[in-house]
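Final report, closing paragraph on structural work. Over the funding period we assembled a curated collection of sequence-structure pairs, and we close with a single example.
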Amino acid sequence: MIGWEDVYKVVVAVVPLYVALVLGYGSVRWWNIFNKEQCDAINRLVCYFTLPLFVFEFTAHIDPFKMDYMFIAADTMSKIIIVLVLALWAKCSTKGSFCWSITSYSLCTLTNALVVGVPMVKPMYGPLGVDLVVQSSVVQAIIWLTLLLFILEFRRTRIEGMTTTFQPKSKPKPIIVINNNNLGGGGGKDVEVATNLNEEFILEDNNSDSASSRLPFCKLMKHVWLKLVMNPNSYGCVIGISWAFISNRWNLEMPSMVDGSIQIMSKAGMGTAMFGMGIFMALQEKLIACGPSLTVYGLVLKFIAGPAAMAISAIAVGLHGDVFRVAIIQAAVPQSITSFIYAKEYGLHPEVLSTAVIFGMIVSLPVSVAYYAVLEFIH
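Its predicted structure, as stored:
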């Protein structure tokens, strides 16, 4: 049973993240150290340098030959269930939208397992829980964060293509086209904003099927893949897991010079990500930038929908005992910081993701303890 000492260990793991968050917030709101352009530059530093190296560092040190593939299968199935449900919602519901499906996917599936999940499950299930959480983090980095990156790049490339299509040669005032999607079921208009040639264009009328306003699909996919090839986030997890297979197969060690070069940047990954989140919060008018209704929406998806999908998948593949319990609890770990960094970089609901990270880390401990107590009755 988890005790006060174990709770303290979780708090010790989480508090440094909030220190970095407060420093980022204060550097803009209280001390006026950074301006808007400098804040954007900090976010790009995190997105393209520290996070890719952080992902590479932890994936490169796992043993892929000793992974629990039934556990991985359950985790994969749960995310496929969520993707299918969101796709149907976006396609069939009048309140559904592609953009909110992407954000909902992040909220349901992507967790901050390494920073919060490991210290949380260690007192509950010991080395077994830690091992499984690390495995889920590796799979998340290789498959699910890469999928998110692909979808975000697809969306941005499509918007940029439409910007080029709509832009007249004489370059007069920006052309404005309104997207009539409902804002995640909350009413209003979902407005896409793209920047091209230093001008802002509000784009994408979902009610228009004009072929002239869209790039051909093959050309669109070519642009997306080229951009992904140039994005270091695409390489971090792939090279990391490739090295993990090679090093564990032939008992090789990474040269100390290479390892040191990677670690000096990767160790700053989570700290700079939280610092960037604090900066983003400071630039908003309100502390809870997305409002209370979307805050509740994000917490419900993270702590109820995600674990529910995992429970269905775990039962379907036949997990039992502590492996089943860890599968449920790791799905209720708070929001991935990386998902916020991507949302900020690609301009898709960063206020929702930042709120999910901040409040998720606050409520995750009592929620996880509640899940732990309930799951103890399941044999």
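DSSP finds 13 helices and two strands in the chain. Confidence is low (pLDDT under 50) at residues 174-199, 201-212. We thank the funder for supporting this effort.
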